[in-house]
Amino acid sequence: MRPLRSLIRNSDAVSVIEFALVLPVFMTLGMYGAEIAWLNAAALEVSQVAVSMADNASRMGQTDNSGVTPTISDADVDSVLTGALQEGGTIALEDNGRVILSSLETHKVTGKQKIEWQQCKGKGKEQSSHGKPDDYLSLLEGLVLGGKRIKAPNDSAVMVAEVWYEYKGLFGTLFIDKVTIHEEAAVIVRDDRNVSAGLTGNGNKNKC
């Protein structure tokens, strides 16, 4: 009995035992916090890419100093899409997502809104949530983005950028399942643009 009583009174290594019991809890909380923080950072990055892509697309043709209303080429659009993927390089956007750029315009006969052309880039398979080129019957009075209806003015266009990103998690699916982040932005063309010519180059309206 005396050795047992001595063992009970012995307080050596109590702190070590307590630390061993608490450590898994703190590690789990820390890992979960890091996961949520990185998810929020990825969502912010995707949002910024969408805004930047729409803004850059709205400026296409501004460097044309010929005095002629500029047209937009496939190469111009590809440059904007490539820049968006590079901007999202910190989250591997090209490998885990897709960027989509659409030109919202007014149908010259019906006066209804339509997507005139649409281009995509990235290894993702997502499609635009606003339809495909010439699918103006589904738009009719405009495109709804962020709860607001957007219309393109006559003889101009609105550049609609969509960014899809599949977040896979720092620790796989330990804390969260795969999350698909989708952000959008729209900016009206800032200068005169000859929209009647469509896309010059190969003239392909849809590369998605």
Structural descriptors:
208 residues, 4 helices, alpha+beta
Question: What's the arrangement of secondary structure elements?
Answer:
Blueprint: H1 2-9, H2 14-58, E1 72-73, H3 74-87, H4 93-96, E2 97-106, E3 113-121, E4 143-145, E5 148-150, E6 158-167, E7 179-188, E8 199-200
Parallel strand pairs: 1-8
Antiparallel strand pairs: 2-3, 2-6, 4-5, 6-7
Walkthrough of the structure:
This protein is α+β, with helices and mostly antiparallel strands. The chain has one domain (about 25-200). It is built from 4 helices and 8 strands; from the N terminus they run ααβααβββββββ. It has helices spanning about 1-10, 15-60, 75-85, 95, and strands at about 70-75, 95-105, 115-120, 145, 150, 160-165, 180-190, 200. It has a 4-stranded antiparallel beta sheet with strand order 3-2-6-7. A two-stranded parallel ribbon has the order 1-8. A hairpin with a 6-residue loop joins β2 (about 95-105) and β3 (about 115-120). α2 runs antiparallel to α3 (about 75-85). The longest helix has about 45 residues, at about 15-60. The chain is elongated and about 80 Å long. The model has no long low-confidence stretch (mean pLDDT about 85).
